[in-house]
Every structure is written in C-alpha cells, then in structure tokens.
Amino acid sequence: METVDRPATTGGERPAEQALLRYAMRSAVLLRGFVGLAATVAGVMTAPEVNALVVGALTANLVWSVVFVAIARARGLTWWLAAGDVAFLSGLCLIQQSVTVPAALPGAASWIGGLITMTLLVAAMGLPIRWAIPASLVLVVAHLAGIRPADDGVISAMIHVIQIIAMAVLMRVLRQSAGYADAELAAVLRDQRAELIERARRADERVQRRDLHDTVLSTLTMVGTAGIPGPSAQLRQRAAADILVLDRLAGPDAPALDVPANGLDDRLREIALQADLDVALSLTPVDVPAPVVEAIAGATAEAVSNVRRHAGTGRVRITLTSENGAIQVEIRDRGHGFDPQSTPFHRYGVREAIIGRMQTVGGLADVDSTPGEGTTVTLRWWP
C-alpha cells in the first residue's frame, strides 16, 4: 500500500487541519462559556456565606466567561487568550477554600473544580503542546495549593495529570490526522491537475490533427487522386488557406484565423459554394456562438468532402433547422453508403473531424449509413 508523507506546508495550505481546529476550538469556546455560566450559578447556590470575596470571585468568573467567549468568537482562540484563562482560573484555585463549600473541595466538586477540566481543554487547543503541558501543570499545582488536601493531593493530581496527557494526545492525533488528510487532498489535487493538463494536451493534439486532416491532407488527397485535373483558382484558394492553417499550428505566436461573425446558415452556404458537388440547400437563418458555428461548419465540410471522395455521387443535400434554440444540420447523399461499424479506428474523418469536433462544443453527431443506400450525417447542438 502506497503511503503519502505529510508535506511541509504553510497554514494556508492545510484546509483540513484548519477546518478541524476551527470547529473544535469553536465548540470548546462555547462549552467553556456555558460551564463558566453554570459555575457562577452553582457558586451562588452553594456559597458558604455572602461576603465581598465570594461576590467578587463569582462576579469575576461571570465577567471573564463572557469576555472570553466574546474575544474568542471575534478573534479566535489565540494563545494569549488561552494563557489568560489558565492564569485566571489559577487565581481562583488559590482562594477556593474561602469562596466554596469546604466539603466539596477534596473531590474537585466545587464550582471552581468544575472549571478546571474545561480550562485544561482550552489550554490544549489554544497553546502549542510545548506550552500547553507546563501551563496545565501550573493550574493543577494552583488547585492543589488552594484545596490543601489531607492526602497530599496524590489522587487529585493523578486525575488531572491523566487529563492533561489525554488531551495532549488527543490534540496530537487530531492534528496528525488532519495533516494526513491534507496530504491526501494535495495528492488528489496534483493528480487532477496532471489529468487536466494531459486532457488539454490531447485536446490540442486532436484539434491540430483535425485541422491538418480537413485542410492540408484533404487538398493533397484531392490532388493525388486527380480530383482537380489541372491548375485552377479553387486549388490556389485552398492552398492559400492551408498555408494559413500551417502558420497557426506552428506555434502560439502565429496569427490565429479570423472567426467569421456571420450566422451558421451563411457559413453552410459558403461550404456549398466551395464544394465540387451539386449541393441542395434548405437553411433556416440561425445565429449561434462563433465556436459552435466553426464546429458545425467544419463537421459539415468534412461530411461533404466524404461525399465527394467516397459516395460515388455528385449530389448532396444540406438541411439546417432550429427549434427552441436547438440546432440540427443534416447532410444526406444517395451514394454507395458504408458500414459505420466496420470503419477502422485509425480513420480520422468520421471519428474526429465530425464526431470529435461536435463534442468539443457540447454537441452530438450521428452517422447513419447502409451499403447501397447512401449516408445521412446529423449534427445536433443546443445551448
């Protein structure tokens, strides 16, 4: 099983750890405020007597609990706020014999004793572990000094030390687990970026091959098969257009071909005029985004070129319809036809120049052909 090491990243690159600590600290802060309020109520109900020290201690606890929660919600559980909570409660622990019921002191059952566990948790979350443990031990010592246990406080100290160790281990495990989650997430993101780059590279490669197939290779095939018997203006125009395509494919600094601003019906009419075939047109005027115009026009030109080269007929019909924004172009001939299932995979014309080109703009292409019954190519696109 492959393991993923935790990367050395900055805080901003650890979303899982940050989210975990943020929610854990928020819960601890709210719980600390609730326990502080409950401790104040318990102190009022169990006060041994009402004097200035008792009133002052209870009032200070209530005010500090409110201030603690307000600051933590506004600025987060900072190290100085956690240290302040430890210092405040340590001070209360030192005077707890004077402000609590003496019978509740040995078992940490007084209203102050109930705050100790919460403050230990706050220290574990708000302080680095190298400071959280010493600060927690200071609080435990203050507690033992305040209650002056008859048994030297061994049992009480052991309980609190176990709490400190457990909380430190818990925070360590939480941070490590979140760190591993961040490492896994970073690995997934790296893989996704690599996959996107590879997809973009392959898409660019397909576009280049498609452009070469539709222009240079098509012209050379036409010349090689004597499709044009001699010099002609049409051949010169095609050769000039092919040179522009080669210039564009030469590199990113090459000038891009101008994208026509006319509608799809005008582009299909241009294709019909340039085709060396008898083309019947039935075109509904349609305006669609320029990339869609180019994709549909390119696929149509390839279908018409296939008719001229393979269908054995000089006639083809192009139909353009539009309904509720959906576009459909149909190129139909009554030529030889072929079996689409038997077309070799390496043949580029149908697979990429027609189907692949339509997929690049979110459209679909369907080729329906039967030997002896002609071919119908249907192109569909919708916004």
Question: How does this structure look, described?
Answer:
This protein is of the alpha+beta class and 383 residues long. α1 packs antiparallel against α5 and α9 packs parallel to α10.
How are the secondary structure elements laid out?
Layout: H1 15-46, H2 52-75, H3 79-94, H4 96-99, H5 113-126, H6 129-147, H7 154-224, H8 233-249, H9 264-274, E1 278-283, H10 290-311, E2 315-323, E3 326-333, H11 348-359, E4 364-369, E5 375-381
Parallel strand pairs: 1-2
Antiparallel strand pairs: 2-3, 3-5, 4-5
Helix pairs in contact: 1-2, 1-5, 1-7, 2-3, 3-5, 3-6, 5-6, 5-7, 6-7, 7-8, 7-11, 9-10, 10-11
Strand content: 5-15%
Low-confidence stretches: 1-12, 252-261
What does the largest sheet look like? 5 strands, mixed
Rg calculated over all Cα atoms = 40 Å
Distance between the termini: 46 Å
Derived from helix and strand composition plus strand pairing, the structural class reads: alpha+beta
Order of helices and strands: HHHHHHHHHEHEEHEE
How many domains? The number is 2
Number of helices: 11
Number of strands: 5
Overall 3D form: rod-shaped
Oligomeric category: single chain
Write out the strand line-up for the largest beta sheet, numbering strands in chain order: 1-2-3-5-4
Mean pLDDT, to the nearest integer, reads 78
Share of helix, binned: 55-70%
Protein name: Signal transduction histidine kinase
Transmembrane segments: 29-47, 53-72, 79-97, 103-124, 153-174
Domain Histidine kinase/HSP90-like ATPase: 300-380
Keywords: Kinase, Membrane, Transferase, Transmembrane, Transmembrane helix, Two-component regulatory system
